[in-house]
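Re: export button greyed out
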Amino acid sequence: MESLNEYVERYKGIINDHLNNYILSYTTPGRLRESMLYSINAGGKRLRPILVIATLEAFEIDPKKGIPVACALEMIHTYSLIHDDLPAMDNDDLRRGQPTNHKQFDDATAILAGDALLTLSFQVITEADTLSNEEKVFLVNELSKASGPSGMVDGQMRDMLSENEWITLRKLEAIHNSKTGQLLKFAILSGAYLGKVSEESMQAVTEMASALGLIFQIQDDILDVIGDSDAIGKPIGSDEDNKKSTYPQLLGLEGAINQKKHYVDVAQKSLEKTGIQHTVLSELIDYLSNRDC
Amino acid sequence: MESLNEYVERYKGIINDHLNNYILSYTTPGRLRESMLYSINAGGKRLRPILVIATLEAFEIDPKKGIPVACALEMIHTYSLIHDDLPAMDNDDLRRGQPTNHKQFDDATAILAGDALLTLSFQVITEADTLSNEEKVFLVNELSKASGPSGMVDGQMRDMLSENEWITLRKLEAIHNSKTGQLLKFAILSGAYLGKVSEESMQAVTEMASALGLIFQIQDDILDVIGDSDAIGKPIGSDEDNKKSTYPQLLGLEGAINQKKHYVDVAQKSLEKTGIQHTVLSELIDYLSNRDC
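Workaround output, generated via the alternate export path:
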Protein backbone atom coordinates (compact mmCIF):
# COMPACT_ATOMS: atom_id res chain seq x y z
CA MET A 1 0.00 0.00 0.00
CA GLU A 2 1.14 3.52 -0.77
CA SER A 3 2.41 5.41 2.27
CA LEU A 4 1.38 9.00 2.94
CA ASN A 5 4.83 10.18 1.92
CA GLU A 6 4.61 8.29 -1.35
CA TYR A 7 1.17 9.75 -1.94
CA VAL A 8 2.41 13.27 -1.30
CA GLU A 9 5.46 12.77 -3.52
CA ARG A 10 3.37 11.30 -6.33
CA TYR A 11 0.97 14.21 -6.42
CA LYS A 12 3.77 16.73 -5.94
CA GLY A 13 5.23 15.43 -9.19
CA ILE A 14 1.90 15.67 -11.00
CA ILE A 15 1.22 19.18 -9.70
CA ASN A 16 4.75 20.32 -10.56
CA ASP A 17 4.38 19.10 -14.13
CA HIS A 18 1.08 20.88 -14.57
CA LEU A 19 2.33 24.12 -13.02
CA ASN A 20 5.31 24.19 -15.36
CA ASN A 21 3.14 23.34 -18.36
CA TYR A 22 0.71 26.12 -17.56
CA ILE A 23 3.47 28.70 -17.31
CA LEU A 24 5.19 27.50 -20.46
CA SER A 25 1.89 27.55 -22.37
CA TYR A 26 0.63 30.90 -21.16
CA THR A 27 3.76 33.07 -21.19
CA THR A 28 6.37 34.05 -23.76
CA PRO A 29 10.09 33.31 -23.28
CA GLY A 30 11.92 35.99 -21.33
CA ARG A 31 12.68 37.39 -17.93
CA LEU A 32 9.08 37.41 -16.67
CA ARG A 33 8.64 33.72 -17.46
CA GLU A 34 12.03 32.85 -15.92
CA SER A 35 11.11 34.67 -12.75
CA MET A 36 7.71 32.96 -12.51
CA LEU A 37 9.28 29.54 -13.09
CA TYR A 38 12.01 30.27 -10.55
CA SER A 39 9.54 30.76 -7.70
CA ILE A 40 7.16 28.04 -8.85
CA ASN A 41 10.07 25.58 -8.79
CA ALA A 42 11.63 26.79 -5.54
CA GLY A 43 10.71 23.65 -3.60
CA GLY A 44 7.17 24.33 -2.41
CA LYS A 45 5.54 21.50 -0.49
CA ARG A 46 2.35 21.74 -2.58
CA LEU A 47 0.26 21.32 0.55
CA ARG A 48 -2.67 23.30 -0.79
CA PRO A 49 -2.94 21.43 -4.12
CA ILE A 50 -2.59 18.10 -2.29
CA LEU A 51 -5.41 19.08 0.07
CA VAL A 52 -7.65 19.74 -2.96
CA ILE A 53 -6.76 16.33 -4.40
CA ALA A 54 -7.13 14.47 -1.09
CA THR A 55 -10.54 16.04 -0.48
CA LEU A 56 -11.75 14.95 -3.91
CA GLU A 57 -10.46 11.44 -3.29
CA ALA A 58 -12.07 11.32 0.17
CA PHE A 59 -15.39 11.76 -1.64
CA GLU A 60 -14.37 9.25 -4.33
CA ILE A 61 -14.15 11.77 -7.17
CA ASP A 62 -11.53 11.54 -9.91
CA PRO A 63 -8.74 13.85 -8.70
CA LYS A 64 -8.08 14.97 -12.30
CA LYS A 65 -11.08 17.26 -11.97
CA GLY A 66 -9.24 19.22 -9.29
CA ILE A 67 -5.86 19.69 -11.00
CA PRO A 68 -6.54 23.12 -12.58
CA VAL A 69 -7.93 24.65 -9.39
CA ALA A 70 -5.14 23.03 -7.35
CA CYS A 71 -2.57 24.68 -9.63
CA ALA A 72 -4.39 28.02 -9.59
CA LEU A 73 -4.33 27.91 -5.80
CA GLU A 74 -0.60 27.16 -5.73
CA MET A 75 0.05 30.08 -8.11
CA ILE A 76 -1.74 32.41 -5.70
CA HIS A 77 0.19 31.00 -2.76
CA THR A 78 3.46 31.47 -4.68
CA TYR A 79 2.63 35.04 -5.69
CA SER A 80 1.87 35.87 -2.06
CA LEU A 81 5.29 34.56 -0.96
CA ILE A 82 7.07 36.58 -3.67
CA HIS A 83 5.36 39.81 -2.63
CA ASP A 84 5.68 39.09 1.12
CA ASP A 85 9.45 38.61 0.75
CA LEU A 86 9.98 42.03 -0.90
CA PRO A 87 12.14 44.62 0.91
CA ALA A 88 9.03 46.79 1.39
CA MET A 89 7.31 43.91 3.18
CA ASP A 90 9.17 41.22 5.19
CA ASN A 91 12.51 41.90 3.46
CA ASP A 92 13.62 38.26 3.32
CA ASP A 93 16.73 37.31 1.33
CA LEU A 94 16.20 33.56 1.60
CA ARG A 95 13.25 31.21 1.32
CA ARG A 96 13.71 27.48 1.74
CA GLY A 97 17.45 28.16 1.71
CA GLN A 98 17.42 29.76 -1.73
CA PRO A 99 17.55 33.43 -2.74
CA THR A 100 14.08 34.99 -2.77
CA ASN A 101 12.73 36.11 -6.15
CA HIS A 102 13.79 39.74 -5.78
CA LYS A 103 17.30 38.69 -4.73
CA GLN A 104 17.63 36.34 -7.71
CA PHE A 105 16.11 38.88 -10.13
CA ASP A 106 15.22 42.37 -8.83
CA ASP A 107 12.35 44.07 -7.01
CA ALA A 108 10.53 45.17 -10.18
CA THR A 109 10.68 41.69 -11.70
CA ALA A 110 9.48 40.13 -8.43
CA ILE A 111 6.50 42.51 -8.25
CA LEU A 112 5.56 41.69 -11.85
CA ALA A 113 6.09 37.93 -11.43
CA GLY A 114 3.71 38.02 -8.46
CA ASP A 115 1.14 40.05 -10.40
CA ALA A 116 1.48 37.63 -13.31
CA LEU A 117 0.98 34.48 -11.19
CA LEU A 118 -2.05 36.00 -9.48
CA THR A 119 -3.65 36.91 -12.81
CA LEU A 120 -2.72 33.61 -14.45
CA SER A 121 -4.48 31.64 -11.71
CA PHE A 122 -7.86 32.93 -12.92
CA GLN A 123 -6.99 32.22 -16.54
CA VAL A 124 -6.13 28.63 -15.61
CA ILE A 125 -9.50 28.04 -13.92
CA THR A 126 -11.54 29.57 -16.74
CA GLU A 127 -9.71 27.46 -19.36
CA ALA A 128 -10.06 24.12 -17.52
CA ASP A 129 -11.84 21.63 -19.75
CA THR A 130 -12.71 19.44 -16.77
CA LEU A 131 -14.99 22.12 -15.30
CA SER A 132 -18.47 23.41 -16.18
CA ASN A 133 -19.13 27.15 -16.45
CA GLU A 134 -21.01 27.03 -13.17
CA GLU A 135 -18.02 25.40 -11.45
CA LYS A 136 -15.59 27.89 -12.97
CA VAL A 137 -17.64 30.86 -11.76
CA PHE A 138 -17.94 29.37 -8.28
CA LEU A 139 -14.20 28.68 -8.05
CA VAL A 140 -13.06 32.06 -9.40
CA ASN A 141 -15.43 33.77 -7.02
CA GLU A 142 -14.37 31.79 -3.94
CA LEU A 143 -10.68 32.02 -4.80
CA SER A 144 -10.85 35.77 -5.31
CA LYS A 145 -12.65 36.18 -1.98
CA ALA A 146 -10.18 33.92 -0.16
CA SER A 147 -7.13 35.71 -1.56
CA GLY A 148 -8.33 39.29 -1.99
CA PRO A 149 -9.15 42.28 0.23
CA SER A 150 -11.56 40.28 2.38
CA GLY A 151 -9.11 37.38 2.69
CA MET A 152 -5.36 36.87 2.38
CA VAL A 153 -4.35 40.39 1.33
CA ASP A 154 -6.34 41.84 4.22
CA GLY A 155 -4.64 39.41 6.62
CA GLN A 156 -1.21 40.40 5.33
CA MET A 157 -2.03 44.09 5.82
CA ARG A 158 -3.29 43.56 9.36
CA ASP A 159 -0.33 41.30 10.16
CA MET A 160 2.06 44.07 9.14
CA LEU A 161 0.14 46.67 11.14
CA SER A 162 0.30 44.46 14.24
CA GLU A 163 4.08 44.10 14.16
CA ASN A 164 5.90 45.33 17.24
CA GLU A 165 2.66 45.18 19.12
CA TRP A 166 1.44 42.50 21.53
CA ILE A 167 -2.00 41.40 20.48
CA THR A 168 -4.69 39.18 21.99
CA LEU A 169 -5.19 35.53 21.02
CA ARG A 170 -8.51 36.51 19.48
CA LYS A 171 -6.88 39.09 17.21
CA LEU A 172 -4.02 36.71 16.40
CA GLU A 173 -6.48 34.04 15.26
CA ALA A 174 -8.42 36.56 13.17
CA ILE A 175 -5.23 37.62 11.36
CA HIS A 176 -4.13 34.04 10.72
CA ASN A 177 -7.60 33.11 9.57
CA SER A 178 -7.34 35.73 6.82
CA LYS A 179 -3.65 35.48 6.05
CA THR A 180 -3.21 31.71 5.79
CA GLY A 181 -6.51 30.16 6.84
CA GLN A 182 -8.62 31.32 3.90
CA LEU A 183 -6.47 29.70 1.24
CA LEU A 184 -6.21 26.42 3.16
CA LYS A 185 -9.96 26.51 3.65
CA PHE A 186 -10.44 27.14 -0.06
CA ALA A 187 -8.38 24.02 -0.82
CA ILE A 188 -10.75 21.81 1.18
CA LEU A 189 -13.96 23.56 0.17
CA SER A 190 -13.16 23.60 -3.55
CA GLY A 191 -12.51 19.86 -3.37
CA ALA A 192 -15.78 19.23 -1.52
CA TYR A 193 -17.68 21.49 -3.91
CA LEU A 194 -16.35 19.65 -6.96
CA GLY A 195 -17.23 16.41 -5.16
CA LYS A 196 -20.86 17.64 -5.03
CA VAL A 197 -21.13 16.63 -1.36
CA SER A 198 -24.30 17.00 0.72
CA GLU A 199 -24.95 20.12 2.76
CA GLU A 200 -24.16 18.27 6.01
CA SER A 201 -20.87 17.00 4.62
CA MET A 202 -20.04 20.52 3.46
CA GLN A 203 -20.68 21.85 6.96
CA ALA A 204 -18.48 19.19 8.55
CA VAL A 205 -15.75 19.80 6.01
CA THR A 206 -15.92 23.57 6.58
CA GLU A 207 -15.41 22.98 10.32
CA MET A 208 -12.45 20.75 9.53
CA ALA A 209 -10.96 23.34 7.16
CA SER A 210 -11.12 26.10 9.78
CA ALA A 211 -9.40 23.89 12.34
CA LEU A 212 -6.76 22.90 9.80
CA GLY A 213 -5.82 26.54 9.17
CA LEU A 214 -5.18 27.02 12.88
CA ILE A 215 -3.25 23.73 13.23
CA PHE A 216 -1.06 24.87 10.38
CA GLN A 217 -0.34 28.23 11.95
CA ILE A 218 0.26 26.94 15.48
CA GLN A 219 2.75 24.41 14.12
CA ASP A 220 4.47 27.23 12.21
CA ASP A 221 4.83 29.18 15.45
CA ILE A 222 6.02 26.09 17.35
CA LEU A 223 8.66 25.34 14.71
CA ASP A 224 9.99 28.85 15.11
CA VAL A 225 10.74 27.98 18.75
CA ILE A 226 11.85 24.33 18.66
CA GLY A 227 12.29 23.59 14.94
CA ASP A 228 15.43 22.76 12.97
CA SER A 229 16.57 25.87 11.10
CA ASP A 230 18.01 23.74 8.28
CA ALA A 231 14.70 21.94 7.79
CA ILE A 232 12.53 25.08 7.84
CA GLY A 233 15.06 27.12 5.83
CA LYS A 234 15.12 30.18 8.08
CA PRO A 235 16.68 30.97 11.46
CA ILE A 236 14.92 29.83 14.63
CA GLY A 237 13.57 32.59 16.85
CA SER A 238 12.86 35.03 14.02
CA ASP A 239 9.34 35.63 15.33
CA GLU A 240 10.66 36.78 18.67
CA ASP A 241 13.35 38.89 17.01
CA ASN A 242 10.65 40.51 14.87
CA LYS A 243 8.46 40.97 17.96
CA LYS A 244 5.68 38.98 16.33
CA SER A 245 2.83 37.71 18.44
CA THR A 246 2.68 33.92 18.33
CA TYR A 247 0.85 31.06 20.02
CA PRO A 248 3.85 30.01 22.16
CA GLN A 249 4.36 33.59 23.24
CA LEU A 250 0.68 33.99 24.19
CA LEU A 251 0.08 30.50 25.63
CA GLY A 252 3.55 29.15 26.42
CA LEU A 253 5.04 26.30 24.39
CA GLU A 254 3.02 23.61 26.19
CA GLY A 255 -0.16 25.65 25.91
CA ALA A 256 0.40 26.04 22.17
CA ILE A 257 0.94 22.29 21.76
CA ASN A 258 -2.27 21.59 23.68
CA GLN A 259 -4.17 24.11 21.61
CA LYS A 260 -2.94 22.42 18.45
CA LYS A 261 -4.03 19.00 19.80
CA HIS A 262 -7.46 20.45 20.49
CA TYR A 263 -7.84 21.57 16.88
CA VAL A 264 -6.55 18.22 15.57
CA ASP A 265 -9.33 16.63 17.59
CA VAL A 266 -11.93 19.01 16.17
CA ALA A 267 -10.70 18.33 12.64
CA GLN A 268 -10.71 14.55 12.97
CA LYS A 269 -14.16 14.55 14.58
CA SER A 270 -15.51 16.64 11.69
CA LEU A 271 -14.31 14.00 9.25
CA GLU A 272 -15.99 11.26 11.30
CA LYS A 273 -19.30 13.12 11.05
CA THR A 274 -19.29 12.68 7.32
CA GLY A 275 -17.76 9.21 7.29
CA ILE A 276 -14.43 10.10 5.70
CA GLN A 277 -12.18 9.47 8.70
CA HIS A 278 -10.28 6.60 7.05
CA THR A 279 -8.85 8.64 4.21
CA VAL A 280 -5.63 10.33 3.16
CA LEU A 281 -7.30 13.59 4.16
CA SER A 282 -7.40 12.37 7.75
CA GLU A 283 -3.75 11.31 7.60
CA LEU A 284 -2.87 14.75 6.20
CA ILE A 285 -4.26 16.43 9.32
CA ASP A 286 -1.78 14.55 11.50
CA TYR A 287 0.96 15.08 8.96
CA LEU A 288 0.42 18.86 8.95
CA SER A 289 0.18 18.92 12.72
CA ASN A 290 3.55 17.17 13.10
CA ARG A 291 5.43 18.52 10.10
CA ASP A 292 9.02 19.61 10.74
CA CYS A 293 9.16 22.22 7.99
CA MET B 1 -28.75 66.89 -27.22
CA GLU B 2 -26.10 65.64 -24.83
CA SER B 3 -22.55 66.65 -25.81
CA LEU B 4 -19.69 64.16 -25.69
CA ASN B 5 -18.32 65.89 -22.62
CA GLU B 6 -21.66 65.64 -20.87
CA TYR B 7 -21.87 61.97 -21.83
CA VAL B 8 -18.40 61.29 -20.46
CA GLU B 9 -19.12 63.19 -17.26
CA ARG B 10 -22.43 61.41 -16.74
CA TYR B 11 -20.90 57.96 -17.03
CA LYS B 12 -17.84 58.96 -15.03
CA GLY B 13 -20.22 59.71 -12.17
CA ILE B 14 -22.01 56.38 -12.52
CA ILE B 15 -18.76 54.42 -12.74
CA ASN B 16 -17.30 56.29 -9.76
CA ASP B 17 -20.34 55.47 -7.64
CA HIS B 18 -20.16 51.79 -8.54
CA LEU B 19 -16.41 51.57 -7.94
CA ASN B 20 -16.77 53.09 -4.50
CA ASN B 21 -19.72 50.84 -3.68
CA TYR B 22 -17.82 47.73 -4.71
CA ILE B 23 -14.86 48.60 -2.51
CA LEU B 24 -17.03 49.53 0.43
CA SER B 25 -19.03 46.29 0.10
CA TYR B 26 -16.10 43.93 -0.41
CA THR B 27 -13.51 45.22 2.06
CA THR B 28 -13.38 45.90 5.79
CA PRO B 29 -12.60 49.34 7.23
CA GLY B 30 -8.91 50.02 7.65
CA ARG B 31 -5.71 51.00 5.93
CA LEU B 32 -6.05 48.60 2.98
CA ARG B 33 -9.50 49.94 2.11
CA GLU B 34 -8.33 53.56 2.52
CA SER B 35 -5.43 52.94 0.21
CA MET B 36 -7.63 51.26 -2.43
CA LEU B 37 -10.16 54.11 -2.26
CA TYR B 38 -7.37 56.71 -2.46
CA SER B 39 -6.16 55.47 -5.83
CA ILE B 40 -9.62 54.66 -7.16
CA ASN B 41 -10.65 58.25 -6.42
CA ALA B 42 -7.45 59.92 -7.65
CA GLY B 43 -9.10 61.52 -10.67
CA GLY B 44 -8.97 58.80 -13.32
CA LYS B 45 -10.59 59.67 -16.64
CA ARG B 46 -12.50 56.33 -16.72
CA LEU B 47 -11.72 55.98 -20.41
CA ARG B 48 -11.76 52.18 -20.34
CA PRO B 49 -15.12 51.86 -18.57
CA ILE B 50 -16.61 54.50 -20.87
CA LEU B 51 -15.38 52.56 -23.90
CA VAL B 52 -17.21 49.46 -22.60
CA ILE B 53 -20.40 51.48 -22.15
CA ALA B 54 -20.13 53.28 -25.51
CA THR B 55 -19.57 49.98 -27.33
CA LEU B 56 -22.66 48.47 -25.73
CA GLU B 57 -24.68 51.56 -26.66
CA ALA B 58 -23.35 51.50 -30.23
CA PHE B 59 -24.98 48.07 -30.53
CA GLU B 60 -28.12 49.29 -28.75
CA ILE B 61 -27.65 47.20 -25.63
CA ASP B 62 -28.59 48.46 -22.15
CA PRO B 63 -25.28 49.81 -20.78
CA LYS B 64 -26.19 48.54 -17.29
CA LYS B 65 -25.12 45.10 -18.42
CA GLY B 66 -21.57 46.37 -18.80
CA ILE B 67 -21.15 48.21 -15.49
CA PRO B 68 -19.54 45.33 -13.52
CA VAL B 69 -16.99 44.50 -16.20
CA ALA B 70 -16.32 48.21 -16.76
CA CYS B 71 -15.54 48.59 -13.05
CA ALA B 72 -13.43 45.41 -12.98
CA LEU B 73 -11.40 46.77 -15.88
CA GLU B 74 -10.87 50.11 -14.14
CA MET B 75 -9.70 48.28 -10.98
CA ILE B 76 -7.08 46.44 -13.03
CA HIS B 77 -5.99 49.69 -14.68
CA THR B 78 -5.73 51.36 -11.26
CA TYR B 79 -3.74 48.47 -9.75
CA SER B 80 -1.29 48.65 -12.68
CA LEU B 81 -0.72 52.37 -12.06
CA ILE B 82 -0.11 51.81 -8.34
CA HIS B 83 2.49 49.10 -9.00
CA ASP B 84 4.09 50.99 -11.93
CA ASP B 85 4.61 54.05 -9.73
CA LEU B 86 6.52 52.12 -7.03
CA PRO B 87 10.18 53.02 -6.38
CA ALA B 88 11.22 49.60 -7.73
CA MET B 89 9.45 50.39 -11.00
CA ASP B 90 9.02 53.94 -12.41
CA ASN B 91 9.56 55.61 -9.02
CA ASP B 92 6.99 58.35 -9.50
CA ASP B 93 6.05 60.62 -6.60
CA LEU B 94 3.12 62.27 -8.33
CA ARG B 95 0.27 61.13 -10.53
CA ARG B 96 -2.28 63.60 -11.85
CA GLY B 97 -0.67 66.16 -9.54
CA GLN B 98 -1.34 64.13 -6.37
CA PRO B 99 1.01 61.95 -4.30
CA THR B 100 1.19 58.42 -5.68
CA ASN B 101 -0.20 55.64 -3.49
CA HIS B 102 3.16 54.66 -1.95
CA LYS B 103 3.94 58.32 -1.18
CA GLN B 104 0.57 58.82 0.49
CA PHE B 105 0.77 55.47 2.37
CA ASP B 106 3.95 53.38 2.03
CA ASP B 107 5.43 50.84 -0.37
CA ALA B 108 4.01 47.80 1.41
CA THR B 109 0.50 49.24 1.50
CA ALA B 110 0.74 50.21 -2.18
CA ILE B 111 1.82 46.69 -3.17
CA LEU B 112 -1.08 45.19 -1.21
CA ALA B 113 -3.62 47.74 -2.50
CA GLY B 114 -2.61 46.82 -6.05
CA ASP B 115 -2.86 43.10 -5.31
CA ALA B 116 -6.25 43.67 -3.70
CA LEU B 117 -7.70 45.65 -6.64
CA LEU B 118 -6.45 43.06 -9.11
CA THR B 119 -8.06 40.22 -7.16
CA LEU B 120 -11.26 42.14 -6.48
CA SER B 121 -11.80 42.70 -10.20
CA PHE B 122 -12.45 38.99 -10.71
CA GLN B 123 -14.76 38.84 -7.70
CA VAL B 124 -16.79 41.71 -9.13
CA ILE B 125 -17.31 39.96 -12.48
CA THR B 126 -18.27 36.63 -10.92
CA GLU B 127 -20.82 38.30 -8.62
CA ALA B 128 -22.52 40.40 -11.32
CA ASP B 129 -26.22 39.61 -11.43
CA THR B 130 -26.54 41.08 -14.92
CA LEU B 131 -24.30 38.35 -16.41
CA SER B 132 -24.81 34.66 -17.22
CA ASN B 133 -22.24 32.07 -16.15
CA GLU B 134 -21.06 31.76 -19.74
CA GLU B 135 -20.52 35.51 -19.94
CA LYS B 136 -18.69 35.60 -16.61
CA VAL B 137 -16.32 32.84 -17.68
CA PHE B 138 -15.64 34.55 -21.00
CA LEU B 139 -14.96 37.91 -19.35
CA VAL B 140 -12.73 36.57 -16.55
CA ASN B 141 -10.77 34.60 -19.12
CA GLU B 142 -10.31 37.50 -21.54
CA LEU B 143 -9.52 39.98 -18.79
CA SER B 144 -6.90 37.69 -17.23
CA LYS B 145 -5.28 37.19 -20.64
CA ALA B 146 -5.32 40.91 -21.42
CA SER B 147 -3.82 41.88 -18.08
CA GLY B 148 -1.60 38.90 -17.23
CA PRO B 149 1.72 37.41 -18.38
CA SER B 150 0.63 37.32 -22.01
CA GLY B 151 -0.74 40.86 -21.86
CA MET B 152 -0.22 43.94 -19.73
CA VAL B 153 2.26 42.53 -17.20
CA ASP B 154 4.40 41.17 -20.02
CA GLY B 155 4.33 44.58 -21.73
CA GLN B 156 5.40 46.30 -18.53
CA MET B 157 8.31 43.87 -18.11
CA ARG B 158 9.49 44.37 -21.70
CA ASP B 159 9.03 48.13 -21.43
CA MET B 160 11.33 48.18 -18.40
CA LEU B 161 13.91 45.98 -20.13
CA SER B 162 13.95 48.31 -23.15
CA GLU B 163 14.71 51.43 -21.11
CA ASN B 164 17.92 53.24 -22.05
CA GLU B 165 17.88 51.41 -25.34
CA TRP B 166 16.77 52.67 -28.76
CA ILE B 167 14.31 50.21 -30.20
CA THR B 168 12.61 49.78 -33.58
CA LEU B 169 9.08 51.00 -34.34
CA ARG B 170 8.00 47.37 -34.64
CA LYS B 171 9.26 46.52 -31.17
CA LEU B 172 7.79 49.74 -29.75
CA GLU B 173 4.35 48.87 -31.13
CA ALA B 174 4.60 45.32 -29.76
CA ILE B 175 5.38 46.64 -26.28
CA HIS B 176 2.56 49.18 -26.38
CA ASN B 177 0.16 46.59 -27.71
CA SER B 178 0.78 44.49 -24.59
CA LYS B 179 1.24 47.25 -22.05
CA THR B 180 -1.72 49.50 -22.87
CA GLY B 181 -3.32 48.09 -26.02
CA GLN B 182 -4.65 44.85 -24.54
CA LEU B 183 -6.76 46.51 -21.85
CA LEU B 184 -8.18 49.09 -24.28
CA LYS B 185 -8.95 46.27 -26.69
CA PHE B 186 -10.64 44.32 -23.90
CA ALA B 187 -12.89 47.33 -23.22
CA ILE B 188 -14.19 47.32 -26.79
CA LEU B 189 -14.34 43.55 -27.21
CA SER B 190 -16.13 42.91 -23.92
CA GLY B 191 -18.76 45.47 -24.93
CA ALA B 192 -19.19 43.86 -28.35
CA TYR B 193 -19.31 40.37 -26.82
CA LEU B 194 -22.04 41.38 -24.36
CA GLY B 195 -23.84 43.00 -27.31
CA LYS B 196 -23.87 39.57 -29.00
CA VAL B 197 -22.72 41.10 -32.28
CA SER B 198 -22.21 39.13 -35.49
CA GLU B 199 -18.84 37.67 -36.40
CA GLU B 200 -18.27 40.35 -39.05
CA SER B 201 -19.04 43.11 -36.58
CA MET B 202 -16.69 41.51 -34.07
CA GLN B 203 -13.92 41.48 -36.66
CA ALA B 204 -14.47 45.13 -37.55
CA VAL B 205 -14.58 46.10 -33.90
CA THR B 206 -11.37 44.16 -33.19
CA GLU B 207 -9.63 46.11 -35.95
CA MET B 208 -10.93 49.34 -34.46
CA ALA B 209 -9.78 48.34 -30.97
CA SER B 210 -6.23 47.63 -32.15
CA ALA B 211 -6.04 51.00 -33.89
CA LEU B 212 -7.44 52.72 -30.81
CA GLY B 213 -4.65 51.33 -28.62
CA LEU B 214 -2.05 52.82 -30.92
CA ILE B 215 -3.86 56.17 -31.23
CA PHE B 216 -3.89 56.32 -27.47
CA GLN B 217 -0.18 55.62 -27.16
CA ILE B 218 0.92 57.96 -29.94
CA GLN B 219 -1.07 60.79 -28.36
CA ASP B 220 0.58 60.00 -25.01
CA ASP B 221 3.99 60.34 -26.63
CA ILE B 222 2.99 63.53 -28.47
CA LEU B 223 1.71 65.10 -25.24
CA ASP B 224 5.06 64.41 -23.63
CA VAL B 225 6.61 66.69 -26.28
CA ILE B 226 4.04 69.45 -26.82
CA GLY B 227 1.53 68.96 -23.96
CA ASP B 228 0.73 71.19 -21.02
CA SER B 229 2.45 69.80 -17.91
CA ASP B 230 -0.35 71.13 -15.67
CA ALA B 231 -2.97 69.30 -17.73
CA ILE B 232 -1.15 65.98 -17.92
CA GLY B 233 0.05 66.20 -14.32
CA LYS B 234 3.72 65.39 -14.99
CA PRO B 235 6.66 67.31 -16.43
CA ILE B 236 7.00 67.58 -20.22
CA GLY B 237 10.00 65.83 -21.75
CA SER B 238 10.13 63.04 -19.17
CA ASP B 239 10.29 60.38 -21.90
CA GLU B 240 13.43 61.94 -23.35
CA ASP B 241 14.93 62.36 -19.88
CA ASN B 242 14.21 58.67 -19.20
CA LYS B 243 15.62 57.75 -22.62
CA LYS B 244 12.36 56.10 -23.57
CA SER B 245 11.72 55.24 -27.19
CA THR B 246 8.64 57.11 -28.45
CA TYR B 247 6.81 57.75 -31.72
CA PRO B 248 8.05 61.37 -32.05
CA GLN B 249 11.59 60.22 -31.39
CA LEU B 250 11.35 57.45 -34.01
CA LEU B 251 9.25 59.32 -36.61
CA GLY B 252 9.64 63.00 -35.74
CA LEU B 253 6.75 65.00 -34.31
CA GLU B 254 5.05 65.46 -37.68
CA GLY B 255 5.55 61.80 -38.56
CA ALA B 256 3.95 60.78 -35.27
CA ILE B 257 0.97 63.05 -35.89
CA ASN B 258 0.53 61.57 -39.37
CA GLN B 259 0.80 58.04 -38.01
CA LYS B 260 -1.91 58.86 -35.48
CA LYS B 261 -4.15 60.28 -38.25
CA HIS B 262 -3.66 57.07 -40.19
CA TYR B 263 -4.88 54.96 -37.26
CA VAL B 264 -7.85 57.28 -36.65
CA ASP B 265 -8.79 56.67 -40.27
CA VAL B 266 -8.48 52.90 -39.83
CA ALA B 267 -10.58 53.02 -36.67
CA GLN B 268 -13.36 55.14 -38.19
CA LYS B 269 -13.50 52.98 -41.34
CA SER B 270 -13.86 49.87 -39.17
CA LEU B 271 -16.91 51.39 -37.52
CA GLU B 272 -18.41 52.19 -40.92
CA LYS B 273 -18.08 48.55 -41.94
CA THR B 274 -20.49 47.54 -39.23
CA GLY B 275 -22.74 50.58 -39.52
CA ILE B 276 -21.95 52.16 -36.17
CA GLN B 277 -20.12 55.25 -37.42
CA HIS B 278 -22.71 57.70 -36.07
CA THR B 279 -22.26 56.79 -32.42
CA VAL B 280 -20.57 58.05 -29.30
CA LEU B 281 -17.96 55.36 -29.91
CA SER B 282 -16.95 57.13 -33.11
CA GLU B 283 -16.80 60.49 -31.33
CA LEU B 284 -14.64 58.89 -28.63
CA ILE B 285 -12.00 57.95 -31.21
CA ASP B 286 -11.54 61.62 -32.14
CA TYR B 287 -11.72 62.64 -28.50
CA LEU B 288 -8.94 60.19 -27.54
CA SER B 289 -6.88 61.24 -30.53
CA ASN B 290 -7.05 64.92 -29.55
CA ARG B 291 -7.11 64.67 -25.76
CA ASP B 292 -4.85 67.10 -23.93
CA CYS B 293 -4.28 64.91 -20.85
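Residues 126 and 132 of chain A are 9 Å apart (CA to CA). The button fix ships in the next patch.
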